[in-house]
Specification:
By secondary structure, this protein is an alpha+beta fold. Helices cover 30% and strands 34% of the residues.
C-alpha cells in the first residue's frame, strides 16, 4: 500500500515524512549518507579510485599521455575530465551522445579544478613549448542515486592523489623523448570537496539528496570548499535561497570536508600497509 501511495503521490509521500523531520530513508534533514572509498582500483590506470555515497557509485580512472602544450599555455600541461552517466547506472539516461547532465557535470569538475588551484598544471610541463603531460580523467557512474557532483569530485581527487608520472628526458637536438621507469607522485596542493543540498517546497533543504529527492526538488545547490574556504557555489536555476540558507549550506559543507579528508587519509594509510 505504501509503495502504491508513493508511486501515485510522490510529492505528498515525501512531504508527509518531512513533516516529522525525517526522510524516507530514515535520515534527518541534515544528515549525510555513508561514504566508502577504494583507491588504485584499476591496475592499468595511472591513478584510480572507486567512491560510494549511499547508493551512488562512481569510478575514476586516469591515464597520462605526453602531448604538445597548448600555444596559449606553453609552460603547462592540462587535465581533461569526462563524466559518463550510462544507461546502466539509471533508467533516466539513454544510450548515445553524453546527456546534458553529463556535460554539465564534466564542466563543473573542470571549473573546480581551475578555480581551486588544487593542481598546478605547470608541474605537468616537461619542456616548455615541446612536451607536457595531459591527464585524461574518466569518471564513470556505476549507480546513480543523487549527489553525483559530490561523488565525482571525491572520486577524481582520490584518484589524482594516487597518480604517479614517469620521469621524462627530452633531447632537443634529436627531438626524441625517453620515458624512464622511475615514477614521481603527482603534486596535489589541496582537496576541494563538494556538498549538495536539494531544495524542497522552496524552503526545506535536504543534505546529500537521493535521486528521488532530487527529482522532486525545486532545485539543488552544490557548495565547494577548499582548505576550509569557499571555492564555488553551483546552483543551476530552481528556487532562490536566502543568505541565511546559503550560510547554513556552507556550515554543513565544512563537516563534509572533515569527513572526506579523514576517509582519504584512512584509505591511503590502509593501502600503504597492504
Amino acid at each position: 500500500m505504501a509503495l502504491q501511495y508513493k508511486t501515485i503521490h510522490p510529492v505528498k509521500y515525501l512531504r508527509d515524512f518531512l513533516a516529522h523531520n525525517v526522510r524516507p530513508d530514515g535520515r534527518i534533514l541534515h544528515k549525510f549518507r555513508p561514504m566508502a572509498l577504494n583507491i588504485r582500483s584499476i591496475s592499468s590506470a595511472d591513478g584510480s579510485a572507486l567512491v560510494k555515497i549511499g547508493n551512488t557509485s562512481v569510478m575514476c580512472g586516469i591515464k597520462a599521455e605526453l602531448t604538445t602544450p597548448r600555444p596559449e599555455e606553453p609552460d603547462r600541461g592540462f587535465v581533461v575530465p569526462n563524466v559518463e552517466l550510462s544507461p546502466l547506472s539509471s533508467s533516466k539516461f539513454r544510450p548515445g551522445p553524453p546527456s546534458e547532465e553529463a556535460q554539465v557535470a564534466s564542466q563543473f569538475i573542470f571549473d573546480v579544478l581551475t578555480n581551486s588551484c588544487c593542481l598546478d598544471t605547470r608541474t605537468l610541463c616537461v619542456v616548455p613549448d615541446k612536451i607536457a603531460w595531459v591527464l585524461y580523467c574518466d569518471l564513470i557512474c556505476l549507480n546513480y542515486d543523487g549527489s553525483i557532483l559530490d561523488a565525482c569530485l571525491l572520486a577524481l581527487m582520490a584518484a589524482l592523489l594516487t597518480v604517479t608520472l614517469p620521469e621524462v628526458e627530452y633531447d632537443v637536438e634529436k627531438s626524441s623523448t625517453l620515458v624512464k621507469n622511475k615514477r614521481t607522485p603527482l603534486l596535489i596542493n589541496s582537496v576541494p570537496v563538494a556538498t549538495t543540498h536539494a531544495v524542497f517546497d522552496d524552503d526545506v533543504l535536504l543534505l546529500d539528496p537521493t535521486g528521488e529527492e532530487e527529482d522532486l526538488a525545486s532545485g539543488t545547490v552544490t557548495v565547494v570548499l577548499c582548505e576550509g574556504k569557499l571555492c564555488s557555489i553551483f546552483k543551476p536555476g530552481g528556487s532562490p535561497l536566502s543568505e541565511q540558507q546559503l550560510e547554513g549550506c556552507v556550515e554543513r559543507a565544512k563537516k563534509r570536508v572533515s569527513a572526506v579528508l579523514e576517509l582519504i587519509n584512512a584509505t591511503s594509510e590502509s593501502s600503504s600497509r597492504g
